[in-house]
Structures are given as C-alpha cells and as structure tokens.
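Holo model, adenosine-5'-triphosphate. Inputs:
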Amino acid sequence: MADQPARTAGPAPDKVRLRRELTTDPGRLTCALLLALGATAAALALPLLVQKIINDFSAHRSLGPDIAMMCVAAVGGALTTAVSGFLLARIGERMTYRLRIRIMDHALRLPLAVVRAQGTGDLAARITSDALLLRQVVEIATQLPLAALTVTCTLLVMVWIDWVLTLVTVLSLAVLTVLVVLILRRLKDNVTGQQNAVGRIAQRFTADLEALTTIKAYRAEPVAARALAADAERLRAISLRGARLGALIPAALTLGNQLAMIAVILTGGARLAAGDLGVAAFAAFLLYLLQTVPSVSTLATGFGRLQSGLAARDRCNELLALAPESDPQDAGRTAPVPLPGAPAVVFSSVSYTHAGAGDAALRGISFSTARTGLTAVVGPSGAGKSTTLSLIDRFIRPSSGSISVLGHDTRQWPLDALRARIAYVDQAFTLLEATARENLQLGRTTRASDGELAAALDAVGLTEDIARLPQGLDTPLGRESDLSGGQRQRMALARALLSDAEIVLLDEPTSQLDGLNEQRFRAVVQDLAATRAVIVVAHRLSTVQHAHHVIMLTGGTVVDAGDHPTLLERCTPYRELVASQRVPAH
Ligand SMILES: Nc1ncnc2c1ncn2[C@@H]1O[C@H](COP(=O)(O)OP(=O)(O)OP(=O)(O)O)[C@@H](O)[C@H]1O
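Output:
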C-alpha cells in the first residue's frame, strides 16, 4: 500500500482557544479582575458622594469627611486601574509569547509542499500582525464584562434615583446598541480580509527580498515595486472599507449618547418643575449618565476590537489545523534497528506525482543501493533525480510503491529516527542564520570536538576560509558574514561529514566548485563512501564516473543501472548524456 499524502499524515493539532488561553494564570487574572472591580466601585461611588456633598452643603453640614472620601475613591480608583491594567498586559504578553512559540514550532513541522503553498511571508504574518491583534483580546475580554458590569450597576443606581429617567436612558441606548451590532457584524469579515491582504503583501515582499539579486540584475525593481504597490492598494482599499465601518461606531455612540442626554434633560426638567425630582438627585443622575458614556463606548469599540482579535485567532487556527508531516503514531513508536546486510535504500515500483502537476515525476521506479559505496543518479533535466532524493528523506511520500531504508519500510520509521540516519545536502547548500560552528553540527546528536571540526574543514578545504572570518568558527553566518557559493557548498559537505548518518544524499554537489575543490570533493566523497552509502545526483558526470553504481533516469523511469563502463557500453541514453558532457570515455 502506498504512503498517505503528507497533508493528512499528522495528528489534529490543538487550536487556539481564547478562554483556555486567558485562564492559564487564574491567580493573576482573578487579582486583575478584583482590582478592576475596585476601580469600578470607586467610579460608581463618586456621583453618590457628589449628591451627598450637595445635600450636606444645603444642610450646612461639614464637608470634610465627604471630600476625604472623594479623594480616597479617586486616588484608589486610579491606582487599582493602573495595577489591573499592568496585570492584564502581562497576561496578554504571556499568551502572545506562547502562541508565537506554538505557531513557529508548528510551521517548522509542516510538510515542505504545504509551507511553499502557504508562502513564507504569509506564515510570518501570523506571528507578527495576527499575534498583535490577538494580544489585545486579553484586555478586551476582561474590559468587556467589567464595562457591562459598570453599565448594569450604574443603571441600577439610576433606577434607584429615578426609574422614569432610567427608562428614557435605556430606550435611547437601545437605539445605539442596534446600530452598533449591525456595524460589528460586517466588521469581522472586513478584518479577516485585511489580515489576509497583509499576509499576501508580506509574502510577496519576502519573496522579492529573497530574489533581490535577480531583481537588481534584470533591473526589475519597477516591476516588483508595481506588483507590491498593487497588493498595497488592495490592502488600502479593504482597510478603508474597514475604517468606514469603524468610523460609524463612534458616530452611533455620539448619536445614542446625545439622544439619551436630550431625552433625560427634557424629561428630568419636566419632573424637576413638577417637584417629582430633587436638584441633588438630578445632578447625581446626570453624573451617572455621563459616567455610563465611556463604559458604553468601551462596550461598543471593545466588541469591534474583539472582532479583529477573533479574525486573527481564526487565521492562527487555520495554520494550526494544517497537519504536521510526522505520523500520529510516531510519538509512541520506537525506531527499528537497521537490518545487518540489508541494502541502504530500496525503491520498489515507486511512482510520484507532485501536487498540482499533471504528469507523474516518477513512474514505477525500482532500484537498490548498497550499504556502502557511491551511487550516482543521473539523467537529463526533469528526469526525476531530485524527486527521488526527496522521497528517501520522506519530504514527500510515494503515490504508489514502497521505499525501504536500512531494511525497513520508511513507513515503519518514525520521521525523526529516519532523518537521523540520513544526511542531506540540498541544491541551495543552505546555511542557517547561526554561527559556522552551529551550522557544521546540525546533523549531530553529540557535540563535535574542535579536533573533529578542524578535520572536517580540512577535508573540504575550508580551514583558511573559516579562519579568515571575524570570529572564526563562532562567526554568525547569513548576514554581514556570508560565504561564497562554493564555500557554502563545502560547508554543507563538511556538515554531512560530521553527521552520524549512515546514508548521505548529495543533490548537485559540484556545480559551484572550481577544479581544485572538485578534486577535493571527489576525494571526500570517496572517503564517505568507504563507510556509508552515498547517493549523488549530478549533472557533471566527471564527478560520478567512479561511482560503484549508476542509475540512469529518463522521464521518470529507470532506463538502466550498472557501473560507468557497463552503461557506456550498453545504454544509448547514458552514452548520449556522457557525450553531451564531453567527458573522456575512460
Ligand atoms: N514542486 C513541484 N511541483 C510540481 N512539479 C514539480 C515540482 N518539482 C519538480 N517537479 C516536476 O517533476 C519532474 C521531475 O523534477 P526533478 O526536480 O525531480 O527533476 P531533476 O531530474 O532533478 O531535474 P534537474 O536536473 O533539472 O534538477 C519535472 O518534470 C518537474 O517539472
């Protein structure tokens, strides 16, 4: 049976659940909420104290205790607001931190094809702009219940002061609520659209920066800038629609508040004239009404910002819902022990079609490679050589057929254990943004000694190049201190030399080497092949004519396999390939 496509291989990942995220630190959250409640109580007490001051003033009573209580309420309210705000910010920062770590970790574990399809820039936007939007949810999620509580408590006190005026207030606020709910419904879709547009622009910009040398060489800055400007224009247009919707919220708030104010003043004035309401009570009522305004605003704008946070959460969950490449059962599985004497790699009737490609890249290929020695995979461009290597390292999985590594089907190997057995030198000779030392030790389970590092650098002829770097082996690579193409290639080979892997895969390893280094490369590969299985994909046949085994691929099928002289003699496509390279026959 063929492997399942990588897309469905992994377990369903855990989604971002806001309630769980908010309650991971219940102690601090409770503290923040209690302090915020204290601040709310202080704010609620102030108008009642004003009413008391007016009454005491009219009755010629001492105002000292009233003023002292007002000071305590004001200062206490300010302090508790500050401390609860800080505690909530802390909870928000921790949530964003956890979320970023989870998203980055998950993105690194996605299948290569899925990462390419998503786009690196768009993925990066999830930990930048989406995470920031999500962070504000903490504040809002706690502000909203408090604002609702403030409004409810205020309304209750208002009912106690004068129920008729309260009814007038509630009816006016109801008009406002209907308007705001209608706006908010449309706002969430708009925010999702904005975040997707941010992702698209980040994706194109990242891709352009990666291709900057080519863009400059072909004077394509205007072309690239035009495409970026078109993305920016799409983002501007959708953000503008969002801004229009957003601007309607304060407009609705102002309208609702003014409506309430006018209605209360007219009704209150009439009740005052009729003697149904005292001046002190009316003043307190008006203060409460004014105090309700910020809480109602918090409620309305908070729901708006919550929509942004929810849209960001959805985008993060979309990413977390992508299955990682490892199998669900990998976690509980022990790695098989390599079978003594079994071939390093066996392909049995393996076919593979790239996602989105019409034709199969490989059609039922079968071959095996010995436990030690050099195997060369050759063939014209597009024959399927790189696809073959990708299948061995399980970057992709066969559409049909099976592959075994060191005597076990690749499906029986936990992914990590399989890759620990294989060193892979890719076409780009990729170096991480890390020191030369860290780059060299990527494939190792134990730390390499200085002696081992020096021997590997010497074997690939890099000793002097690394010594010339500002901090030698401890120089961070990738920014100011980058290496040339050939040096990167030799670093990648030294990394393979230092790894513990029994199988070494080399994709196009000599394209950037000069004559001297190519000879050195051949010597290193021969050394490697003495104790490991080395599988090389190469166009330059001069480097593989000493291979113990050559597999000739054409159009996704193995047309022949054998050693160099045998293939030269009996395989016409191989002879033609060799002739096209003008390599001496012997
Ligand atoms: N990511 C991909 N999506 C779709 N098709 C792909 C992808 N990668 C390779 N192919 C197609 O699969 C076929 C085999 O490609 P592969 O890269 O394995 O060939 P190759 O022999 O290594 O070529 P080259 O020597 O030019 O690097 C080609 O027809 C190629 O167009």
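Residues 343-421+501-512+527-586 form a domain with the Rossmann fold fold (CATH 3.40.50.300). The chain has three domains: 12-199+239-320, 343-421+501-512+527-586, 428-500.
Archived with the compound record.
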